[in-house]
Amino acid sequence: MKTKRSVRLFFSYLLLILIGIASVYPALWTIMSSFRAGDSLFSDTFFPKHFTLKHYSDLFHPENIAGKQVPYVKWYWNTLKIATMSMIIGTLIQLLTAYAVSRFRFKGRKTLLSTVLVLGMFPGFMSMMAIYIFLVQLNLLDTPWALIIVYSAGAALGLFVAKGFFDTIPRSLEEAATIDGANHWQVFTKIILPLSKPIITYISLMTFTGAWMDFIFAGLILRSRDQWTLAVGLFNLVDSYSSTAFTLFAAGAVLVAVPITILFAFTQRFLVEGLTSGASKG
Amino acid sequence: MNRYARTAGWLSVLSMGLGQLYNRQWTKGVLFLLAHITGITLITTVLSNHIAGFFTLGEQGQHLVKVGKIYKNIPGDHSIFMMIYGLLSMMVVLLYVFIYVMNVRDAVANGRLREQGLPTKTFIDSIRHGVHNNFPWLILAIPILGVLFFTIMPILFMIFMAFTNYSAPEHLPPKNLVDWVGLQTFRDLFTLNVWSDTFFGVLTWTIIWAILATVTCYFGGILVALLINQQGIKLKGLWRTLFIIPYAIPQFVSLLVMRNMLNDKFGPINQYFRYLGLDGLPWLSDPFWAKVSVIVVNMWIGIPVTMVLVMGILTSIPKDLYEAAEVDGATPWIKFRNITMPFVLFSTAPILITQFAGNINNFNVIFLLTKGGPSSIDYNMAGKTDLLVTWLYKLTLENNKYNVASAVGILIFLIIASVSIFSYTRTRSYREEDMIQ
């Protein structure tokens, strides 16, 4: 019995270690590549023979890599701006929408919910061309505002996550507040919001990273290189130079991934909550 | 007995605002009247033209006209803009009709109040009343507008597009006109060999992919979660954090990195194969291995999500179930089979369906890893790992075949919709949502 148990544990640990290696290997390899001298993808060894910080400094001094036109700092700033703005507006819209459908029973509510479900089933790109034409007409092409507006406008469709959470907050709390004379708005800001920190964190994180990582729509809307976001820029870097600018890409990728990964690490607890409350979709 | 309601109602039908004026609600009446005048003017001058344009899609494309001795290029009708303006105009007309109906209802309601000898509300009062009673609609107004313009309108536009011949090279405005062609695009897609071979090929792979990707991630996730959760495994938190890493790294970064790692010549994976004396595999350039690669890489990305969910469920299984089983002398295997597994499967079943639907539309993994490639001569504008969505992307942005792309989009919608309707109607929380509390 005892040996059986230790055999089982031995194989379990072995598997865990293997999965662990598979999980972190790509990240480690990218980090190692970003410190490697030269610019090629190929390397004899896992650890670089010559450590260098050149690729990182290149990102901040675009004049050194003029041939490749990588205004990294500018991209970073653009991305930060767009992601933060869409996060603030998008989260607010999503919370309000979810609050309205979770807390009120009004005429047309079921229709509204079904519409949102149906809309979610259309592939997102299907509407890209039409949005593109709209933005041309509104003269918003190639501006960060175009992206902020489009991301925020779509935020309401993700209402089910927050709705699932709001549904679990007992109604008696609001009833007590209403008896004390609070109006709808006060109930929302003073009672619902303070109780919803986990879900607010989750939604903010999702809208932030959504904007941070989108390279398809952003690539369509942002035409000039200076307006690009990180995702568009890095995608382009790999796409047009493939294996000849890999170390530069690696350095860029590390700087993109680190803040997001840290954010995720700190908010792990909320992620689980968000994932589970979004999963049941109703 | 005065019949205020009837009179006010009919007056409001005659023209917006009249009923309100008859009810002596001056401000409201004037506002409605103004809305009426604006609406009528807009409809007769601008909107009707645009709506007509929606049906004709233009009379003449760009053409040459002889001015004196030289030919000049005269811009013609731009069918696509005409379509969008037409759609927008119809929305404005609908809005107008909606306000009209509200106006009549308001007049009747206030007429009733007068019949009962009650005072009608002052303007300020009715606003306050409206805000309180329609609070949900009030806070939904901005989101609805946003969704209307940036989701519903574009989707409608694209649906209509499937019934036109809007595509390169012959029907691209502003040079040429676009026409309504009915179901021709769908017919081509199903019967014309150029399209149907690609369509059915891509569709088959999309379904295989969606099933494999979902199943591997789902069971992979459950297995990993159970592995960590075993009795006697130490440092559970550490393992969990370690395994979440793939989920935390931005997808476009990890996928682009993977693409380089799987590079035939220079990538580290094949390099390790060569250390072992093996030849290395054409991970992304051979149709079969490319399919294997995308599924394996997708596991790497997808397993953490299921793992996190399942670990949450595992902690929520009531402990007394296990204790009772132990009292009855159950072995660990029986406990696992009869308590753990049913519990996990039951609580994660809805996720399985959402993930399946999500995988049908899993653009990122395919596009960033293989770009749909390797390309093939059997397919028209698609590669061997292309899903319907990535094909849609290529059709639209790279080849300007808008009508075919829209038709494909509609078909994707039909697939997803049938899968989802199946699951949503069976989710308990949808039917019994007021059960909690």
Short structural summary:
The complex is a heterodimer of chains A (282) and B (437). Chain A is mainly alpha-helical and 282 residues long.
Describe, in plain words, how this protein is organized in 3D.
- The complex is a heterodimer of chains A (282) and B (437).
- By secondary structure, chain A is an all-alpha fold.
- Chain A has 14 helices and no strands.
- The two termini of chain A are 47 Å apart.
- Chain B folds into 2 domains: 4-182, no CATH class; 185-431, MetI-like (MetI-like fold), CATH 1.10.3720.
- Helices cover 71% and strands 2% of the residues of chain B.
- In chain B, strands 1-2 form a two-stranded antiparallel ribbon.
- In chain B, helix 3 (26-56) runs antiparallel to helix 4.
- The radius of gyration of chain B is 31 Å and the shape is flat.
- Chains A and B meet through helix 1, helix 3, helix 4, helix 5 and helix 6 of A and helix 4, helix 6, helix 8, helix 9 and helix 10 of B.
What are the key terms here?
heterodimer, A: 282 residues, mainly alpha, MetI-like fold, 2 domains, 72% helix, globular, B: 437 residues, two-stranded antiparallel sheet, flat, disordered C terminus
